[in-house]
Amino acid sequence: MSTQAYYKERLGFDPADTVAEHQREQRSQHGYEESLSKFKGQNANGFPEEGPGCNGEIGEHRAGNTQAFWGCWAMFIEAHDERDAIQKKTFTKWVNKHLKKASRHVGDLFEDLRDGHNLISLLEVLSGEHLPRERGRMRFHMLQNVQMALDFLRYKKIKLVNIRAEDIVDGNPKLTLGLIWTIILHFQVSNSAFCKT
Fold first, then answer.
1. Which of 26, 72, 107, 158 has the fewest CB atoms in 10 Å of its CB?
2. What per-residue confidence (pLDDT) applies to 85?
3. Does domain 88-186 have CATH number 1.10.418.10?
């Protein structure tokens, strides 16, 4: 079985479709930014065509090195952000696939998990158990709901590394993605492997 088919079977959809969709969006966005940068007199990386302090050979050399450094740094950040965007789309699809059973939907993964209601509903669908929840809309209620979800995961012996309720309520992208990946590993991948043995 190919890796792509393996993940398609485990996640319920093909992650390659998400990657292709993201790349199409990036190409259209890049074309817009390139046109905009030409209009503003900048190069494709967003740097001025002729920067200040470029007088003489030494100035030009330093400016070239600085531009090369920031160009490399910008490419690194762009690649990193692209990977996070692909993960976010893939995880959002997976979450929505299960939340459909609870008549819920997530638009923005980082925003829509903050109050804890969608997170609790996801865990209820995946585990088949009922979890209590706070009904209020204040930060205190949001923290209580997320903490309830995290405590349930710890009760199920799922190891959470450096993920606190505050991180999810504040919409921390890295830790929210980490939490969803941990849930996928336990409830989707482990259960599928267990069922096949």
1. 107
2. 87
3. yes
